[in-house]
Amino acid sequence: MYGPRQHTQGAYAQIVPRWYDLMSTERPITIFGDGSQTMDMTFVQDVARANVLAAKSDATADFFNVGTGTATSVLEVFQYMKKLLGYDLSPGFDRRDVNLVKRRQCSTEKAEQTLGFKAEFAVKDGLQKYIEWREEIAGSESLVLAANVR
User: Fold this and answer.
1) Which of 8, 15, 43, 89 has most Cβ atoms within 10 angstroms of its Cβ?
2) 12, 24, 128, 131 from 125: Cα distances, Å
3) What is the dihedral of CA 124, 13, 2, 100, to 10 degrees?
4) pLDDT, tens digit, for every residue of 114-127?
5) Is position 7 within any domain?
6) Collapsing DSSP states into helix, strand and coil, what is residue 132?
7) Nearest to 35 by CA among 84, 81, 76, 89
C-alpha cells in the first residue's frame, strides 16, 4: 500500500516515499537486486474503500486480499516516478537483494465477488496523486511532521 500520509522515513518507509525524497532532490537511487522483483502496488484510497465495503457487507470472520491483482516490478515503479518527477539519473544496482519475497500479486477474485471491490487506481495514477500530495505539503513543516507520525 502507498499513498498520501505514508510514513516517509524509518524502517517501514517503502520505496515510494524514499525515492520521492531522493528524486526530488536529484540524488541517486539504488535498486537492490535487478529490479525485476514485483509488488501488488495498491493505492491507499482503494484500501480504504475496500474496508468500507467489508464493513457494510454481510461477511463475518472472513479474509480478503485487497490489491490490484497486477504485479508491478521495482523497475516499473522507478520508471513511472522518473517520468512523473522529471528525474534525469539512472538507477544504480546493488546485487544484494534485501527482499525475501520476489513476487507479490494479490488474488482479488474473492474480494470482488463478495465485497464488490475492484481497485480503481492504476499504479502510475496513484503515484501521481502521491507526488501531488508531497508537493502540496512541501512548504508546511507541521503537515510533514504529521505525515511522519506512525
Assistant:
1) 43
2) 23, 18, 5, 10
3) 80
4) 888 899 999 999 99
5) no
6) helix
7) 76
Residues 6+ apart with CB under 8 A from 30: 91, 92, 93, 94
Question: Which CATH number goes with the domain that contains 25?
Answer: 3.90.25.10
Q: Tell me if 4 is assigned to some domain.
A: no
Is 89 a member of any domain? yes
Exposed e or buried b per residue across 16-52, where buried means at least 16 C-beta atoms within 10 angstroms of its C-beta? bbebbebbbeeeebebebebebbbbbbbbebbebbee
Q: What is the pLDDT of residues 37-58, one digit of tens each?
A: 999 999 999 999 999 999 999 8
30's enclosing H/E stretch is strand 30-32
Domain ranges, residue 135: 15-147
H/E run at residue 125: helix 123-137
User: What is the value of pTM for the model shown?
Assistant: 0.81
